[in-house]
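The record is kept unedited without comment:

——
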Amino acid sequence: MSSEENPQNSGMPPETPQSSAPDGDIRALNTKIKEESAFTDLIRSEMEKVIVGQHDMIDKLMIALLANGHILLEGVPGLAKTLAIKALSGCISVDFSRLQFTPDLLPADVVGTMIYNPKTQDFSVKQGPIFANFVLADEINRAPAKVQSALLEAMQERQVTIGGQTFSLPEPFLVLATQNPIEQEGTYPLPEAQTDRFMLKVVLTYPKRDEEKLIIRNNVSKTPFPKPKPAVSAAEVVRARETVKEVYMDEKIERYIVDLVYATRTPEDYKLKELKELISFGASPRAGISMALAAKAFAFMNHRGFVVPEDVRAVCPDVMRHRIGLTYEAEAENVTVEDVIDKVLNAVEVP
């Protein structure tokens, strides 16, 4: 059989009776994706002018943007978390706001409040900093639960209610929240149900030696610090989100995603009996939804009109990391969530 007759040999996703995709449709979709995803390379190159290293963070930010999700970054201070979201907003020419979360912050400081005007003897709405396209929630775990819930409600519903009036948030809308893992005093850790609202949780590491040398050189140089140039409009990003949903996902890939999620709930069904006593709760249904959308966005960024298993494996750790609970036995044995995810990825059969 020739490669044209067999889509698997030609690099195209195989057909299935339940979810068939003719080769012609896939090729037409590939052409469309290549044209409409060209701006992702421009965004990446513009951001890399400002941010040294942290390529994975840049990719995950773009995945969250394209998949209409939100992202939680965890890392020690100084790893360019704030700079990254500022650079991304500069590449798209959208409104950016920063919220420094502190223990005395109030929900009104985030969403806005009603202001009394003595001249008109009436109340008017003053919108808060949440009304921006890109919102940086810096050190989100330093604010009490009431403030966290106000932000997360806006993330989920994409709207805010102030004084009985409901206001829609602008599009595109992206929340990048950060938390510092090394300081626990004066913090209010996000409950599992709230972290589940984030599509991705990315853990940042220190830069490499060569990268750190370049960071120092750039920051002490007389040359003005580079600024990213607009590479795409907000309307184009919104349109790209719809195109991402068109990326073809074979039923075998869907089953693979479901198996990865179920392996965290019933590990004994996947020859992972050793994990049963280590996992207190498995990934939620949002994990499967987020993994599918993130895999499609990853394929879009790689200018492909179809999802392959490697796309799923690339996004799985960041989708699952904050959706799996560990038992005391796991902590006693120094087993981490990353260890559990690695075992699941190695055990579940790849289509």
User: Anything to note?
Assistant: The domain at 247-347 is CATH 1.10.8.80 (Helicase, Ruva Protein; domain 3). The mean pLDDT is 84.
